[in-house]
Amino acid sequence: MKVVLENLTKKFPSRDRKNREDVIAVNDFTFEIPDGKLIGLLGPSGCGKSTTLNLISGLLKPTSGKIYFGEEDVTKVPAEHRGIGLVFQNYALYPHLTVRQNILFPLQNLKGKDKLSKEEMNKKAEEAAGLVQISELMDRKPAELSGGQQQRVAIARALVKMPRVLLLDEPLSNLDARLRLQTREEIRRIQRETGITTIFVTHDQEEAMSISDMIVVMKDGVVQQIGKPQEVYDNPKNLFVAKFLGTPPINVFDASVRGGKLYIGEEGVLEAPGVTDQECYAAIRPEGFVLKEEGAFGCELKALEVMGRDISLVIKNSASQNPALRAIIGSDTPVDVTKKQVRFELKPQKVFLFDRETEERIFC
Ligand code: ADP
Ligand code: MG
Questions:
Q1: What is the enclosing helix (H) or strand (E) of 129?
Q2: Distance, CA 45 to ligand 2 centroid (Å)?
Q3: Residue whose CA is at the smallest distance from ligand 1 atom 20
Q4: Cα–Cα dist 299/83, whole Å
Q5: Which residue owns the Cα nearest ligand 1 atom 14?
Q6: What's the fold here for domain 3-243?
Q7: Where are the domains of the chain?
Q8: Ligand 1 contacts CB of residue 94 (under 6 A)
Q9: What is the pLDDT of residues 50-61, one digit of tens each?
Q10: Ligand 1 nearest-atom number relative to CA 218
Q11: Which residues, 6 or more positions from 109, have their beta carbon under 8 angstroms from its beta carbon?
């Protein structure tokens, strides 16, 4: 099911007595989510992710704008008639019910022509449980399950009616690191198997990047960029997006362009053909540094961290905004650790320039 958001806006009245201005939690969000895709809605806490999801689910009403499921305008359709499945961070299972009863619950409320026989309900519950691989836990109570298993039950419960759209709000945040990794792969698999259009909310960029067909990066209620994860990573539109994606984070320097050349400090580090002379920011991905004795860019070497496949050089440069920078180089590159200074050549496609005022991308 295709989902279309059209100029979607949600304002909340201010709770602050001194500042009476409305909070604009979602500001003019327009996007067509293609049928059968998994979309990662990504941004820092408070940027409007949950509000967006709750607008799509129908738990909240928009201040203005429209929502379509396929060709149907669902803006005024109540949540229970939208055909959505919802999963939250806290699994919100009924503690006194067994796993089976929890999964059956949404089916038991069906009325009229949608009403199912006991056998049909049980079959659907078994199928949903099979999909999330908890078939052998059906007679347990939630308290007898691990966090990861509880979240699977919640996902099964959301899937049992075969929703038109599956909405997941930070579903992995309560799980430990290993389970988080495993469960996100599971969600990806289930999404592929069912083909249900899914919106996955997270503040964790790595999580969103790893499982999404497309990501939407939000800040202060405003969509910053939409695209395939790799495209957004390789081509950030503004400094916020560049800084939000990537681990270790991108390295940001005060820089300038003079005579078609990019300067960091006094060093001319890269050609910047066609860019007018100006002060700007230069942001360099950690993998954009190539260790070279005659390289144009010099940094102080502070430490060396070996991380299996890669070596991370902790470096310092007076033009940098971050106190410690990280350059990632292949572990087969010899590094003389006694050196206090290192020099780099920069990979042009890993260096982005941004306007000092607007923080928008300057394209070379
Ligand atoms: P996120 O899920 O990205 O952390 P939210 O969508 O929960 O962000 O919130 C976005 C903004 O809207 C925040 O500034 C938050 O304080 C505000 N907000 C959310 N819900 C309400 C509400 N019911 N009343 C007032 N303000 C709200
Ligand atoms: Mg939230």
A1: helix 118-131
A2: 7
A3: 51
A4: 56
A5: 46
A6: Rossmann fold (3.40.50)
A7: 3-243, 248-362
A8: no
A9: 999 999 999 999
A10: 3
A11: none
